[in-house]
Amino acid sequence: MKHLAILGSTGSIGQSTLSIVEQFPERYAVAALAAGHNIDETFKQAVRWRPKIVSLATEELAGELAARLKKAGVTGIEVVHGTEGTIACVMLPETDFVVSAIVGVSGLEATYQAILAGKPLGLANKECMVAAGEILTRAARERKVPILPIDSEHNAVHQCLRVGQHNEVKYIWLTASGGPFRQTPIEKFESITPEQALKHPTWVMGRRITIDSASMLNKGLEVIEACRLFDVTAKQVRVTVHPQSTVHSLVEYVDGSILAQISVTDMRLPILYALAYPERPASNLTFDLATLSHLEFEQPDLERFPCLRLAYEAAEKGGAHCIALNAADEVAVAAFLDHRTSFMGIPRTIEKVLAATPEAHPATIAEVLAADQEARERARTLLVN
Ligand code: MG
Q1: What is the C-alpha to C-alpha distance for residues 21 and 70, in angstroms, rounded to an integer?
Q2: For residue 380, is it within any domain?
Q3: How much distance in Å is there from the Cα of 335 to the middle of ligand 1?
């Protein structure tokens, strides 16, 4: 029986993780839940799953949740808050597996603490790997702590890598759906609206990641994530546009063999894989091969999607540039959703921020968070239309 701490329990990954726990009660139990501001959902989850500890973003929210639980006659749940609260969920002695699915760098400290404590990690938070991947993966290797990627592409790569040796890998191929503007003429890119960009063809996701998919910045973050997780260079990570989103990613070996992972487009499968690794429990997440009539793979167009080019540049430099890429994008995407910059203002802002970022390799999580703040301020100053 694995006892989970789910960081980001009310988000889509958190909820999918809970549905896996529901399906496999003989394998998984909930030890701790960490959420942000969604107190109603957190209350429901606490009542349903009876964890030992629950964390919310602020002291006020934690106080309100504690009062609601008391009123409902639910006892024995400790309610905590903030970064310390999230860390307490990880450090709980009962917790023996951590699902890290808090969006943004706010889950970074707790993710790092999980590794230091030797607790295996299912990682759905790509910003952590982008901003602090060098630190996290070094600590994990030293302590032999498995980091199981939940991001569908990296999960696919992890599966494909199990059949070969590290030095036999030629390329990691990350598939990209191409987003809603795959076939949009380049001259229309300047006038793309937030409403158009929020329509995503395959996956239903949060707002920032949906915009990041439309700009392909998301794929760029995944390139960096792949470099860190699998210890390969940026040149070894390639992106292929695969509109069907059926092949979740591929690994090309030096002998010419290419292995692909195919499955339903359902996040519960990578979550189950991460939770159960190295086992493969039987599930009902089957894929009907007969529905596969054709698969397309195209080269990504870096002219229409400059965010991808910028991500490769950041991946080569590492450290502060990867932090700046992520931070500048978050600031620029918020501005875009707010109609304060254009769709192409996102890459233009990122490019300016990257150019203004001195090369540096933060060595601690505190330094990463400081560099992240610095990059956000820089992005707010340099924001262009
Ligand atoms: Mg992905």
Answers
A1: 25
A2: no
A3: 23
Domain final residue, candidates 95, 121, 149: 149
Q: Can you give the three-state secondary structure of 10-38, one letter per residue?
A: CCHHHHHHHHHHHHCCCCEEEEEEECCCC
Quote the pLDDT of residue 26. 97
Report CA(83)–ligand 1 centroid distance (Å): 26
For the chain, what is the domain count? 2
Q: How far is the CA of 62 from the centre of ligand 1 (A)?
A: 32
220-243 pLDDT, tens digit per residue, is 999 999 999 999 999 999 999 999
Same domain? For 255 and 174 the reply is yes
209 CA distance to ligand 1 middle (Å) = 9
Question: Going by C-beta distance under 8 Å and a sequence separation of 6 or more, which residues neighbour residue 384?
Answer: 341, 345, 348, 349, 352
The rounded Å distance from CA 80 to ligand 1 centre is 31
Which CATH number do you get for residue 35?
Answer: 3.40.50.720
Residue 303 lies in a domain: yes
Final residue in a domain of this structure, among 101, 134, 149 = 149
CB-based contacts of 173: which residues, under 8 Å, 6+ apart? Answer: 238, 239, 240, 249, 250, 251, 252, 258
Find the 337 Cα to ligand 1 centroid distance in Å: 21
Q: How far apart are CA 119 and CA 122, in angstroms?
A: 10
317: containing domain: 154-375
**From ligand 1's centre to the CA of 266, what distance in Å?**
12
* Assigned domain for 381 exists: no
Structural domain includes residue 385: no
Rounded to two decimals, what is the model's pTM? 0.94
CA of 220 to the centre of ligand 1 (A): 10
For residue 104, which amino acid is it?
G
- Ligand 1 center to 150 CA (angstroms): 9
Q: How confident is the model at residue 246 (pLDDT cuts 50, 70, 90)?
A: very high
- Amino acid code (one letter) for 304: R
Q: Are residues 169 and 103 in the same domain?
A: no
What is the 174 CA–ligand 1 centroid distance (Å)?
Answer: 9
